[in-house]
Design goal:
single chain; about 250 residues; 15 strands
Length: about 250
């Protein structure tokens, strides 16, 4: 079974922006470089970045749908991140030294009845992905189209906040890969588990408004999963157009 890579995405700040890459070099046992390198701890969180903690410790789209409309650009050389949102002016800042500017910028996007964003946390050992291991999310375009078709409306792939998107494979084929290895470009990934989904996917990544019953639609297949979480077991470079092969 073979396919191809269509796009690569990273999210430097967990739940706060997305960025397309023209290629990426993965390392064994590590997340996609700079993916979820920071996360936004809310005022009730005890997260400090030294250890992985569950997503409930952070501000995220499930509780604050306006966050879904953020896009981002990371300058790896300077460490500065630029954030964009349809209802906010662009912000360029250093997450290590200019947290106050970020918190001021994001405050209007947070619902008043939710725990407010309190601080940026830098992940120390690994990115703050949702899986309890250093994960890279693999998404199937055919599965995405299956959800669109059943809903009867177009959907942005950014609802799923995946890392690697693949094409030319049957819908939901990725669910049969649990425990199998798959090669993308030079890298080899072990598919470990399906990705359970939350209310973040109901929000439109262009507007930040909830406008699609993605969870209800997934339940029509008997689950609320989309995409799979993988572990990099052999590092290497991946670029759009690269071959995808189930080993």
């Amino acid at each position: 079974m073979t396919g191809r890579v269509t796009s690569i995405w990273r999210h430097p700040i967990k739940a706060h922006g997305r960025e397309a890459l023209d290629r990426v070099t993965l390392q064994a046992g590590a997340c996609l470089p700079w993916d979820r390198a920071w996360a936004v701890a809310h005022e009730l969180s005890e997260a400090d970045g030294t250890d992985w903690v569950r997503c409930g410790n952070f501000s995220r789209g499930a509780k604050a749908p306006q966050l879904m409309a953020i896009s981002s650009t990371l300058d790896e050389g300077t460490g500065r991140i630029t954030l964009r949102h349809p209802d906010r002016p662009d912000l360029s800042f250093d997450p290590e030294t200019e947290q106050a500017a970020f918190l001021d910028w994001v405050r209007p996007l947070m619902p008043a009845d939710r725990a407010q964003s309190a601080r940026l946390v830098r992940a120390q050992a690994r990115g703050m992905t949702d899986a309890p291991f250093a994960s890279v999310t693999l998404c199937n375009m055919a599965s995405h189209r299956a959800v669109e078709e059943r809903m009867g409306q177009p959907l942005s792939i950014h609802r799923w906040r995946g890392n690697l998107w693949i094409e030319d494979l049957p819908a939901w084929a990725e669910f049969d890969w649990i425990g199998r290895e798959v090669q993308l470009g030079q890298a080899v990934l072990l598919v470990r588990e399906r990705t359970g989904r939350c209310a973040a996917t109901t929000a439109n990544p262009e507007t930040g408004l909830r406008d699609a019953d993605t969870l209800g639609t997934l339940k029509s297949w008997g689950h609320t999963d989309f995409s799979v979480q993988t572990e990099v077991i052999r590092g290497g470079t991946i670029a759009p157009g690269d071959k995808v092969t189930l080993l």
